[in-house]
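Quick one, T. Sequence first:
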Amino acid sequence: MIKTKLLSILLILSLLLTLGACSSSKKKETTASPANFLLPFSGEDSTDPYACKSDCNALLSELIYESLFVINEHRDPENLLAQNYIAEDKTITVTLKPTVFSDGSALTSDDVIYSYNRAKQSDRYKAALEIMDNVQAKGSSVVRFTLRSKNVYGVNALTFPIVSQKNNLLGSGYYALTEQDGAHALIYNKNHEGDKPEFETISLVECADEMHAIKLFNQDKIDFVFETLADGNRRTTAIQSQKAKLNNLLFLGLNSKKGLLNNADFRRALTFSISQTALCEEALEGFAEPTATPFDASWSEMGSIVANTVSESKKEAKAAFLASGCTYDKMGINLLSEEKPITLTLLVNSANNMKIALAEAVKTQLIGFGISVEVKKMPLDEYNIAIENENFDMYVGEVKIPNDFNLDCFFTSNGGADFGIDYSTVQKTYVQFRGGNATLQDFVSAFCEENPLIPIGYKYANVGLNAGLETTGTMRENCVFPQIQEWSK
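Structure tokens:
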């Protein structure tokens, strides 16, 4: 009997010890330190989006601040701080969601107006807001924007960050900047209405510029690097990477004021001779999405547009060359104009390897149609002067297209990329389209008839990621950390 009782006591003690071990193990698991997320940051620069100079701090501002609207992967606006909006003629009236900054103070129309005025004066945002004339408060939670002229996509421009007028470092985003003993970090903004993020704290590593960030990433000292590929070189050694769509359009500028290029049939023939898909996949190493128009092919409204194709057409190209008055030699190989072989000059920035590869690939494609191309690789300053003086037949160009699809750079005098473009029907149709008096199809049809330039594709940035980092959402311009609350290690 005593042995039985003793055995029972021992079994109970053993069970208690086991349960204690499980409880201890479970407690240890739930109190484990969360995984750390390391991002580049310049302590000598501000995170204020209208004062910061460094690209790394500009990226961080997306985590600290929010905007009225965000442009999704289909290039359509989605409400963020805006509850709703009404667009009428030349006004856009926005009602704000009840929102507070990270310190708990209310975000009001006065903060929106303050942010708008600063954005209009900043290098990063002023170009996108040139379409705006002014903004007025219509109550503490309602603001009315007035446009310079009617613009059916004007709301797309309202993506500038909203900062607190009382403290420019305060935003309403998922995180707030903190400093302790000289170390900077982003901590979860508990006043944010979204789900609690997996990373409650993001550690910030001192970084001077993009090249420094790439070096830190390659040394495993940060978990994320945004490589713009501005010079056409990819330098990260990432096991895991993603592409982030930029608003940068790559194109072939054509001098329609000169020689054969003054002929619309000849320009159309050149367009049919170019394979944007091959250029983007091969010459640009997949870091551009091909487009047949000046618009991003991912834009939701482009799917139903006729002539929105990037396929090369040899049959149509040759027919258009013949319609322009050109002929082929007796062998049917070389294209002739007035019985002479055709040679076109193509200018390219000599400091950009991807663009040089693009120019050489264009040369190869046009040789297939019997046209000789002289690629002129020029230092950037000489390249810019030659283009401004319109001393070219073609050039490899790149421009940033605003979120509201503003193409004034091409179709207004002194627009910045109007070199060689002869004013014609396409400009008139563009103005009508911007004001809502012509459809998108009307403009695309006019563009494809005139071919004032040859669109190539919308550029991607290269995003290097730590091999253990799990991300969600589609990275893109102005939304580099999509669904950050779900990112984890």
